């Protein structure tokens, strides 16, 4: 099996190296990742400027660095290097990627979605931690993380993606202790109440910071499982945003009336 | 009605000014948009650096410019300026935003999705044109575009978003002639076969361009309606990527087996 490992925290992230080490037990592994952190770039791609891609060695860890976003990186790795991959693993991200709000803006998930658009099964891994030392100095946490990465990747490689699923996202809680369990849950809609703080620079001109305040999570969502239960959330995601394909409570009559209204106006 | 008009092509795009002019007939309109083009930034947000926002005047057209992405801009406009909007209109984008592949990376759609996450109804408008002169010099095209923007915005403002719909995306064909019709269609999965071209700079170092080659569109998709039929595609999109919420052909048994397999491995 040929595996592409990538991320959005960049080539120097310990999470990338961990994912590479876990994946090595499953097959041939290439690491191609952004040269610098590209958090919250979503599925952004670079069309208006050229991209660089070069081999580099980080204390014995051979990687290919790109100047692009995580999405660019998936294209450069597959099409630019003309390699075929059976599986794309993205992460392990520093910080969880729970809730649709976060998923849509996440570079870790962005890389996985681009792989899915190219027809390659993709799994994203993220950890609700603030520093990698929390995991790197904890043998039990490393054992569990390794087991979960290998089990998910092995399952998908052997059985294929479950029908209807484009990307699987795995979120680890802060502490990975004996007794922790993986739970199949849906992504919450929101994780944060978005905030904007206005400040004034030394020259008297305003500037703004975007940040988020934690919302109280709803039960049986990825946010709840990771933050409250401290279990591992496994979330199955589709690329299909089409309301017309979803048999859920879509108001088709109202949509048809909208289009009739438009046609009458032309 | 209070309307926020934004885009991803930046404050100097004629499409932004057009959308403002169309919206003016519907209510009070603020224009807040990126100071420079931010195409293909998807739902990327800026968390690690501060953002600027300032009023400016482009030949009598008063806008608020931001240094952020389209998603940042929606947050800055709503939370930074502490304004409440009933509707967010994004566009009109130079170039169509058809297919899920393009929608996920589109800044025009990104702004609309962020508005939807904030609970504000949002409509994205895009035109399959290469230059704005194609529309600006064509009175019939302007009349039709104006009518369609007003009809969609008015319908959503008066009736609310149809149940199950988070964002409505409208794509105009290259030519807007008498007889053109709006059609309710789903987004195709792909619009382009992605390509990467390797070149060598004058110093002998490789660089890469990402681009896409048109794929033959499938019938009854947004790509087909806009490119082949030359009609107007109206697409209803949901933010809900959860396979577990979709009653479509998801293989739940296989997903449960995956999680069992993971739990056995821990």
Quaternary assembly? homodimer
As a percent range, the share of helical residues of chain A equals 25-40%
* Number of helices, counting only DSSP H or I runs of 4 residues or more of chain A: 8
Query: Overall mean pLDDT score of chain A?
Result: 94
Per DSSP E runs of 2 or more residues, the count of β-strands of chain A stands at: 11
N-to-C span of chain A: 55 Å
Radius of gyration of chain A: 20 Å
Explain briefly what this protein structure is.
Chain A is an alpha/beta fold. The first copy, chain A, has 8 helices and 11 strands.
What are the salient characteristics of this protein?
11 strands; globular; 8 helices; two-stranded antiparallel sheet; 266 residues; alpha/beta; homodimer; nine-stranded mixed beta sheet; 27% strand
Explained architecture:
Two copies of one chain form a homodimer. With 266 residues, the first copy, chain A, is an alpha/beta fold. Chain A has helices at residues 14-24, 70-80, 100-105, 107-117, 133-136, 139-159, 222-228, 252-265, and strands spanning 2-6, 28-34, 53-58, 61-66, 87-94, 122-127, 167-172, 182-184, 192-200, 206-214, 232-237. In chain A, helix 1 links the parallel strand 1 (2-6) and strand 2. The longest helix of chain A is centred in the middle third of the chain and has 21 residues, at 139-159. Chain A is globular, with a radius of gyration of 20 Å. In chain A, 55% of the residues are buried. The mean pLDDT of chain A is 94. At the A-B interface, helix 2, helix 3, helix 4, helix 6 and strand 8 of A face helix 2, helix 3, helix 4, helix 6 and strand 8 of B.
């Amino acid at each position: 099996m040929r595996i592409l490992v990538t991320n959005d925290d960049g080539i120097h992230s310990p999470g990338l190296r961990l994912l590479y080490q876990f994946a090595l037990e499953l097959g041939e592994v290439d690491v191609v990742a952004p040269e610098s952190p590209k958090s919250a770039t979503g599925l952004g791609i670079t069309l208006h400027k050229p991209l660089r891609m070069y081999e580099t060695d980080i204390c014995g860890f051979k990687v290919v660095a790109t100047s692009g976003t995580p999405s660019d990186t998936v294209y450069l790795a597959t099409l630019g290097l003309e390699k075929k991959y059976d599986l794309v693993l993205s992460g392990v991200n520093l910080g969880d990627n729970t809730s649709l709000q976060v998923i849509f803006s996440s570079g870790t998930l962005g890389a996985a979605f681009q792989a899915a658009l190219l027809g390659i099964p993709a799994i994203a891994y993220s950890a609700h931690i603030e520093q990698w030392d929390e995991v790197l100095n904890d043998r039990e946490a490393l054992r569990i993380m390794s087991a979960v990465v290998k089990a998910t990747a092995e399952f998908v490689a052997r059985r294929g993606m479950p029908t209807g699923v484009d990307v699987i996202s795995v979120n680890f809680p802060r502490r990975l202790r004996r007794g922790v369990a993986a739970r199949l849950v849906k992504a919450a809609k929101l994780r944060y109440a978005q905030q904007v703080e206005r400040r004034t620079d030394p020259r008297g001109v305003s500037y703004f910071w975007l940040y988020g305040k934690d919302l109280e999570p709803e039960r049986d969502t990825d946010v709840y499982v990771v933050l409250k239960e401290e279990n591992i959330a496994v979330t199955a995601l589709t690329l299909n945003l089409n309301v017309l394909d979803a048999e859920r409570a879509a108001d088709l009559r109202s949509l048809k009336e909208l289009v009739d209204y438009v046609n009458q106006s032309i």
